[in-house]
Amino acid sequence: QWKQLENLYFREKKFAVEVHDPRRISVSRRTFGQSGLVVQTWYANTSLIKSIWVMAISQHQFYLDRKQSKAKIPSARSLDDIAMDLTEMGTPKVSKLVTLEAKNQLIMASNGSLISSGSQDSEVSEEQKKEKIMELKKKEKLLQEKLLQKVEELKKICLREAELTGKMPKEYPLSAGEEPPQVRRRVGTAFKLDDNLLLSEEDPALQDLESNFIIQQKLVEAAKKLASEPDLCKNVKKKRKQEYADAVKKLQEIENSINEYRIKCGKKPTQRTTLTLPGKQ
């Protein structure tokens, strides 16, 4: 009977009903201290279990509404009063679980329960809520740390762009009241190729090699200017010197390839790398 109901709830694939039965002694650890409490449990897929729980809650609500209505109905009633009662009883009240007889009831997002105040399940639910809040706070902290990391990466990218263009991009993240940093544009990093130089050879293969040499020569000049830029920290200066040395090495390799091809074609080799770079023998 509904008056013997203590609780009905679902969690994932489990639906359970707790009722008072004076003829039986409780064997459930969940209901320690409440003699005569019997737990009956069913299992199915989550959607079916939730549907069953909703129907059970609705049926229980109907029982409570009828009981409340009967208490208010006088011994002799008019047809209008009866019609009004039936109309009120027919109003959907599935979502309204708080009634005069069922106060302090709780429904959680991952499960549902009809919990009367002071029961064991009330304490369990509060503990679950605390664990969920702690878990969400932990996730929030991790997301904030990741966001700060991404913001720092974006700042570095914007600073690199500003060094090349001389203008700070609008995407640079600024805090409230923060002014964008002043960035000095890197000098000597821009160059323009002479189109006539790329058309000086009739041999397509040799012309391709010569084009690569001219482009790499300009890259060497730019790397040299960056390496000789003043007011650089030790690590940056060392890195740029290494980049300059690598560019020179690649330029020499391209010239070696050109000379091998020129000798193969019966032409004289060149020594442009050593001539354009004083001190490189």
UniProtKB/TrEMBL annotation:
<dbReference type="InterPro" id="IPR021774">
    <property type="entry name" value="CUPID"/>
</dbReference>
<keyword id="KW-0963">Cytoplasm</keyword>
<protein>
    <submittedName>
        <fullName>FRM4B protein</fullName>
    </submittedName>
</protein>
<feature type="coiled-coil region">
    <location>
        <begin position="126"/>
        <end position="153"/>
    </location>
</feature>
<dbReference type="GO" id="GO:0090162">
    <property type="term" value="P:establishment of epithelial cell polarity"/>
</dbReference>
<keyword id="KW-0175">Coiled coil</keyword>
<feature type="domain" description="FERM">
    <location>
        <begin position="1"/>
        <end position="67"/>
    </location>
</feature>
<dbReference type="InterPro" id="IPR000299">
    <property type="entry name" value="FERM_domain"/>
</dbReference>
<dbReference type="InterPro" id="IPR011993">
    <property type="entry name" value="PH-like_dom_sf"/>
</dbReference>
<dbReference type="Pfam" id="PF09380">
    <property type="entry name" value="FERM_C"/>
</dbReference>
<dbReference type="GO" id="GO:0005912">
    <property type="term" value="C:adherens junction"/>
</dbReference>
<dbReference type="Pfam" id="PF11819">
    <property type="entry name" value="CUPID"/>
</dbReference>
<dbReference type="GO" id="GO:0005737">
    <property type="term" value="C:cytoplasm"/>
</dbReference>
<dbReference type="GO" id="GO:0005923">
    <property type="term" value="C:bicellular tight junction"/>
</dbReference>
<feature type="coiled-coil region">
    <location>
        <begin position="237"/>
        <end position="264"/>
    </location>
</feature>
<dbReference type="InterPro" id="IPR018980">
    <property type="entry name" value="FERM_PH-like_C"/>
</dbReference>
<dbReference type="InterPro" id="IPR047176">
    <property type="entry name" value="FRMD4A/B"/>
</dbReference>
